[in-house]
Specification:
Blueprint: E1 3-5, E2 8-10, H1 17-40, H2 52-80, H3 87-122
Helix pairs in contact: 1-2, 2-3
Length: 125
């Protein structure tokens, strides 16, 4: 049996609390490891994004940083559906915007690492 809201059907997503906490902990761990490795790598000779490994690790770290705010936004969305106040919706929007910005920046860094690697492999250095 489907619930209808404003003429459309919505599917309820059941989230396990332990799985959410594990996902957030794994994302934070990945981000810490990636940014630590980037900090410990020797300084590149050229531009920062011409070093594929450094750029890939930065992008992976940013993708990991994007995960907890996006999960928090999803959880707040479920909670704010029954709330008559707008504050939860505003906080959810802030989480979603921060997560989306980190997601886009992470994808750009990963794309630049692929570009730098292809440039090294295909072109004269």
């Amino acid at each position: 049996m489907n619930e209808e809201g404003n003429g459309r059907t919505e599917r309820k997503i059941r989230l396990n609390r332990k799985a959410v906490l594990v996902a957030i902990a794994v994302a934070v761990g990945i981000a810490v490891v990636c940014f630590t490795v980037v900090a410990l790598l020797p300084r590149p000779q050229g531009r920062f994004f011409d070093a594929p490994l450094r750029s890939f690790l930065t992008g992976l770290g940013l993708l990991a940083v994007a995960t907890p705010p996006l999960i928090a936004g999803l959880l707040l969305k479920r909670r704010a559906e029954t709330s008559p106040y707008f504050e939860e919706g505003f906080i959810r929007a802030v989480f979603n915007i921060f997560g989306f910005v980190c997601l886009v920046l992470g994808l750009i860094c990963v794309g630049l690492s692929v570009w730098a690697l292809l440039k090294r492999l295909l072109g004269p250095g």
